[in-house]
Amino acid sequence: MTTSDDLADKIGQLSDGTVADLMDFIKIRSVYDEKDLQPVKDAANWCQKKLTDAGVKPEHVEQKCIGDPAKNAPLVYATCGPDDVPIGTPTVLLYAHYDVVEDGGWEEAWNPKLVDDKKRVQGRGAADDKSGVMMHLGALRALKGKPPVSLKIVLEGEEESGDTLEGYVRKNKDLFKADVIIIADTGNYKLGEPTFTTSLRGVVAVDVTLSTLKKPKHSGVYGGPPPDAFMALTRILTALLDDKGDVAIPDLVRDHWSGKEPDETAFRTEVGILPQVNLIGSDTLGSRLYVRPAVNVTGLSGPQPYSKPVNQLTDTARARVSLRIAPSQNPEDAIAKLERFIEQPELNPWNAEVTVEKADSGAGFQADTTQPGYTVAKKAMKKAYPGKETVYIGDGGAIPLVTELQQINPKATVLLIGCEEPLCNIHSSPESVDIDELAAMTLAECSLLRLLAPKQ
Fold first, then answer.
1. Which residues are catalytic?
2. Which CATH architecture has domain 4-200+364-452?
3. Measured between alpha carbons, how far is 336 from 330 in angstroms, rounded to an integer?
4. Of 7, 73, 249, 456, which one is least surrounded by beta carbons within 10 A?
5. What CATH architecture does domain 202-254+293-360 belong to?
6. Which of 344, 360, 358, 364 is nearest to 293 (CA)?
7. Other CB atoms closer than 10 Å to residue 141's CB: what's the count?
8. What are the domain boundaries of the chain?
9. What tens digit of pLDDT does each residue of 372-431 get?
């Protein structure tokens, strides 16, 4: 039996190759765009080759079409396990995504380099989520392509900007049946501190369209009596929050967080909140971040852009309203409450024409940490982070796939782990990942796979 020390040594020996591969991987500009699939196809081909290089039989690695081959990124799907599968061997599903967000004007996004005395790899997707892909590859390499459990490896290409995979999972449930599911798309609450993300808020969104005029009119000639559509819309939008900054929509689920409480000072620094700006909302910081609703506007149209102002009354204004919901909140119920709130006559005293249309919906996630799988997973974390206690945190974001996998595997242990600690600066610049954190999380995954294997 390979020990955790042997695995740690093996991962250390493979580290230079892991870093080199990650830097090579970052060079692929794998931003999903249905009008240009070549970058994500290149990334999928890269993943497929690396899986076979790591010991997965070529006939057990394929690229699956999850929708329209002309519009959707391929899903890299692989299986491997012991040659002779003992009775009681669990199936473990490993998930990560190879697509990344746009560079956002970061000129060096696709030119990876080592920074911080060569302790971190910098580049777009270094952490989110190419580190997750490398974590799974690293585990396979350390185990010499012969994991002691049955593996299903799922590498997605549309996580950041598509939503096709959830429907594919619902139609192909057998491909995604597992006893343990490892989602490598989160991370530790702080560098070097082992962490499980045990809750995710859900998200719903609606498009609000408000019209007051048949077409724009000169504000100098007509301004005054006719209501400006944008000004009328802002009355509705500002009503979504009360004076404390809590979501004003009544009867939404408002849970209380009892896990690891974030440090407010560190949180303010991480977010970049200006010194004089107050945090909003009531209850603890953890509750506000992880299990209570939050609302904001994610898209807006109406007046002319600031760079090209025009003296005119706006005829029609639109806003995409995004509502983060508690993990236990039913999304459809939340949408109905949001729509009713927006359509209140008292928010529309000028009797503007208002329409509300559903734009998005995704359920939250709550892990059952009493499952035996969590006990085993905590032991694995201790092997990777000796002397450290594993903590539970929530995440204010949503990963709809997690909910789908949980629904078709109601008895499975779902583990959200990864390398994306706060210093990674994901979805911003400069994004990076800590090399030692990647190695530690790879060791944790390897150790977990060993511990899950049936005793001989």
1. 99, 159
2. 3-Layer(aba) Sandwich (3.40)
3. 10
4. 456
5. 2-Layer Sandwich (3.30)
6. 364
7. 23
8. 4-200+364-452, 202-254+293-360
9. 999 999 999 999 999 999 999 998 887 889 999 999 999 999 999 999 999 999 999 999
